């Protein structure tokens, strides 16, 4: 499953740092964080998507506490 979320992030460097960290999470097939469009695109297996999304949200708060991802 692939979904897009609104992602308020402060700078392009922060977006790249976040994308790199999220891509290493277990269960993430593909992730992109676009600073210009303020979007996070996440691809993960359908049966694990909710658990992977929870892990992504937690890791995002840890890496960039000011980032707001709207689910």
Architecture overview:
This protein is 38% helix and 32% strand. The chain is an alpha+beta fold and 71 residues long. It has a single domain, classed as Alpha-Beta Plaits (2-Layer Sandwich), CATH 3.30.70. The longest helix is centred in the last third of the chain and has 15 residues, at 49-63.
Largest sheet properties? 4 strands, antiparallel
Total helices: the number is: 2
* Biggest sheet, spatial arrangement of strands: 2-3-1-4
Per DSSP E runs of 2 or more residues, the count of β-strands stands at 4
Number of domains: 1
Which ranges are low-confidence, i.e. pLDDT below 50, for 5 or more consecutive residues? none
Straight-line distance between termini = 15 Å
Give the radius of gyration.
Answer: 11 Å
CATH class: Alpha Beta
What structural class do the secondary elements suggest?
Answer: alpha+beta
CATH architecture: 2-Layer Sandwich
Write down the secondary-structure element order.
EHEEHE
> Which fold name fills CATH's third level, the topology?
Alpha-Beta Plaits
Task: Compute the average pLDDT.
Answer: 97
Strand content: 25-35%
The level of helicity is 25-40%
Shape: globular
């Amino acid at each position: 499953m692939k979904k897009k979320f609104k992602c308020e992030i402060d700078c392009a460097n922060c977006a790249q740092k976040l994308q790199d960290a999220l891509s290493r999470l277990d269960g993430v097939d593909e992730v992109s964080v676009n600073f210009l469009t303020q979007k996070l695109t996440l691809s993960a297996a359908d049966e694990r998507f909710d658990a992977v999304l929870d892990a992504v949200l937690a890791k995002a708060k840890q890496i960039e506490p000011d980032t707001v991802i709207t689910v």
